[in-house]
Amino acid sequence: MNSAATDRARYDRATAHLDAPLAIVDLDAFDANADDLVRRAAGKPVRVASKSVRCRALLERVLARPGFAGIMSYTLAESLWLARSGFEDVLLAYPSADRAGFGELASDAKLAGAVTVMVDDAAQLDLIDAARCGGAEEIRVCLELDTSLRLLGGRVRIGARRSPLREPAQLAELARAVAARPGFRVVGLMAYEGHVAGVGDSLAGRPLRSRTIRLMQGAARKELAARRAEVVRVVRAVVPDLEFVNGGGTGSVQQTAAEDAVTEIAAGSGLYMPRLFDNYTSFSGRPAALFAQPVVRRPGVGVVTVLGGGYPASGAAGVDRLPVPYLPQGLRYDPQEGAGEAQTPLLGSPADDLLIGDRVWFRHAKAGELCERFDTLHLIEGDRVTESVPTYRGEGRTFL
Known about the structure:
By secondary structure, the chain is an alpha/beta fold. It has twelve helices and 19 strands.
């Protein structure tokens, strides 16, 4: 058997006692992917993006490995929950308007020492102060730099619309404003180059598009490296004891780590290796997180129908946001039905070898969003389930 067929046989044996739908994480693949992230980070610590994992047990597992340090969270409520659970270094990656959460943060010394919040506007400081409810704890603050590539005098923008802070002088000005304001302290800088870290540069069947992406990313890396270094220089002039400069993502680990100004790398999707991360020339990984749907119908030759499966990923709607039928290889969606809410027909010659009750294994387009569909991840080593652990959803936590 080839490696894909071997994996399918292992997963089927390991979960034979369980009913599908179900989700698994192959720990051998997960650990190998973790090792590869550390290798690419070249000695700089990797901060784990929790939105790409969404399972406390697996966050604990990866943070116990050398080369990983800290969590990058996605909501304030999640940040507080993780800090109360014992995680001591949680960086909130996005600004928040959670007034109750800020009130709790400002009133608890342990939480205030563990959680760093994201700020790119003085109005966010006003919101936090208004939410303190008498809490006097100092709030740890990270400033975010806009990483987008601007071309043709700014008429063309490539990159996510995140922070309004682009120029070094803007970051220095906000750093001075925070430093002059009681109850806040700047401890870090963050810059997420999503148009490099989150966009694959090797698209199957699209060589010209792939080359264009590589040219864009090369220009973006060069421009950002120079601007980020200057931002760090001017902010350190205001905040000499700056604790960290965070950058990157799974798709840009080695390039971002090569910048002297960056002290740590953010990554998370590379642990699960969802389908959107297949399209990179600079690295490869092993699919670690999968879900299985049971065959419930055989409508005709070359067709089976599985239960459910309509789990699209966030982002601009498109075929690339759909889960992909993975094992057995060779199955595809019916273009008239796609991935369905209640049932999903699958076409292809492998359908004729599938019986009622057999499993089809899928890969999600993105990483942690899979965990919003399942309350349990079954952890597989070899051909055995060695543990079943709750996702955030399984612990009754749906933060977004």
